[in-house]
Amino acid sequence: MEDRIERIKQHLHAHNYKLTPQREATVRVLLEHQDDHLSAEDVYLLVKEKAPEIGLATVYRTLELLNDLNIIHKLNFGDGVARYEFRAEGAERHHHHLICVQCGAVDEIMEDLLKNVEHKVEKDFNFKILDHRLIFHGICHRCQEQEDNQPLPEAKQAETNINR
């Protein structure tokens, strides 16, 4: 984690910003919860535990700065809440997400599934693509397994027995 923080500090300095204690606290929370896709409010509550003096506006400004500098991504999964995650170091493109409409789980696809589509769009439409986002909405494997293991309601069970 310390190496990543040092690289972020260097990135900030290269753009004439400092890694203030408030920014560092925000970065640490994001690093500690990398897989959670935290909202600004989530980040704020976790940062507040480390730095009680920090304000919500400071966390918002820090998240926007980190997003503007391409250190993190601001994501919208269609629920009206902006969420944040680190940009993978050295990655050319953003990764993809699977959103479960039942439990709200967010899973990630790390491989780039759209290379051929990007090439076709750039060629056919003379459009230089800088990045893309792909989000699939559906039912995750955990919810599907849970549904498969649920006993059928009595009416459905009777209907199933009649049809046999």
TrEMBL record:
Fe cation binds at residues 94, 132. Zn(2+) binds at residues 100, 103, 140, 143. This is Ferric uptake regulator, Fur family. The keyword Transcription applies. Its cofactor is Zn(2+); Mn(2+); Fe(2+). Binds 1 zinc ion per subunit. Binds 1 Mn(2+) or Fe(2+) ion per subunit. GO terms for molecular function: DNA-binding transcription factor activity; transcription cis-regulatory region binding; zinc ion binding. The lineage of its organism: Bacteria, Bacillati, Bacillota, Bacilli, Bacillales. Signal peptide: none annotated. It comes from Caldalkalibacillus thermarum (strain TA2.A1). The keyword Repressor applies.
